[in-house]
Amino acid sequence: MECNVELARECVVEDPVFTVIVPVRDRWGARLRNCVGSIALQTLQPLEIIIADYGSTAEGHKEIMETVEPFDCSVYYYPTNEIWSLSIARNMGIRRSSCDQVAVVDADLILESRVLEVLLDSHLSRPSSYISCFIRMLIVEFGDVQMPEGFAELKEIDYWASAGFGGLVSAARSWYFKVRGFDERLKFWGSEDGDLWKRAGLDGMDRYRLNDLNQENVGIYHQYHKGCFSGSLPEHRASTTEEQRRRMRWNKMIFERDHTVLRNNDMWGLKRFIPKREDSFRY
């Protein structure tokens, strides 16, 4: 079966040392600009940055392309009316990555400057690492952030502490391929990160959080937006539809009851593209 994942924009980076994947659907403007901008300013360079656009409208995709135009990143686009799946969007990027280490970063996060540097050092010293993080869920909405000067201001904003399973997840590319990525049965929202954290433990991975390393300039901030606490707080849960709540219950059931490591089928990530490199066995 052929798929229609489109390489909407190609950015060829010579000898990248780390792949970062940003999954999106109809999300553009300041939040996405802040996210990709913070990745572009990382101390670790050069990077392969992949924007995985799963299901944006034609207009939304155009807005995304305009938002990321200033940055050196590739964009893959899969037009679909299917319900949003963070797992599929992330897997789209993973299957098209080329570096040995791959991090997925939600499109509403801002990374301080040494996040990827510390992640890579950790992977090299502990090869079976599966790294997640605690993030600051900021509770004030704002626009464009001037970086790196703006980090001091972000630290002063009130926040909720995350559960520590995701938002950013980093592991060896070979391990994602071994387990076929994030579980693509998970749709709408919820359990993607906790599920892969559990599977990493079942597979004997060395699981820990970036925050455990006690390094400087590795803060991760979640930018507040409408619906970002869907299902977490009563006032936001009330705005979800019954179908969305049903999906969240289904996700939770998979997380609690499925204790297998290998998920999906060979079409995970909406099938591979033809490899550009000679080491095609990696695909």
From TrEMBL:
Domain (Galactosyltransferase C-terminal): residue spans on this chain: 155-222
InterPro entries reported in the protein's UniProt record: Galactosyl_T_C, Glyco_trans_2-like, Glycosyltransf_2, Nucleotide-diphossugar_trans
A single GO molecular function term of this UniProt record: transferase activity
Any Pfam family the entry gives: Glycos_transf_2
UniProt keyword annotations, A-Z: Transferase
Gene3D superfamilies listed in its UniProt record: Spore Coat Polysaccharide Biosynthesis Protein SpsA, Chain A
Transmembrane parts of this sequence: none
Glycosyltransferase 2-like domain ranges (all copies): 19-136
UniProt protein name: Glycosyltransferase 2-like domain-containing protein
Organism: marine sediment metagenome
Lineage: unclassified sequences, metagenomes, ecological metagenomes
